[in-house]
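seq:
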Amino acid sequence: MKDTLLNEIHNDEWMMNILKLVRDLDLPDCWIGAGFVRNKAWDFLHQYSESTPLSDIDVVFLDKKNTSKEYEKELEAKLSKQASNIKWEVINQARTHLWHNKQPYNSTEQAISDWIETATCIGIRLTVDNNLILITPHGLKDIESLTLRPVPSLKDMTLFNERIHKKSWLKLWPKLSIANSDKL
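struct:
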C-alpha cells in the first residue's frame, strides 16, 4: 500500500504543488497530515475517479523555539497568499502535548501518533530533492483495510464517535468499517 499511495500522490499535480508550498516554508520536522493523505488512500481504495474535497489541510511541525499561536497564524496567512482557495491549519506540535496531558513530544511523528484515529495518524512531506516521505506511527494496516480504529492512547471514545458522525466518513467512503464497534 505504501508504494501505491506514494505513487498516487506523486502523480497528483495538485497534491505535489501543495507539498512544494509547505516544503518551501522550511519548518522543522514539518509534514502535511491527516485527511490530505488518508483521503487519498480511501479514495483510491474506493476506486473514486475524483478526489473527495478536503475540509482543510493540516500542516504540522515541531519547533520548540517558537510556540506562539500568532506564528502559526502568520504561516497560515503566508500559505493562503499562495493558495487562497484552501483552508490551512498550521499547528506547532511542540505545544499539543498539553491537549493530551502528556510530556512534550520529541517529534512530529510522536505527536501525530496521538491523533484520534489510527488512519488519521499519517503524514507526508516532500524533500528538497523531490522525494516523498511518509510517516505512519500506527502503520498502514487500518488505512488499507478501511478500518476506523481509535488510537490506543484515546481515553474518551466519545471524541472518536463524534468525529465519525460529524465528518460523515461512512457516507463518503461506504466500504469503511469501525473496529470493535460493539465496544463503542
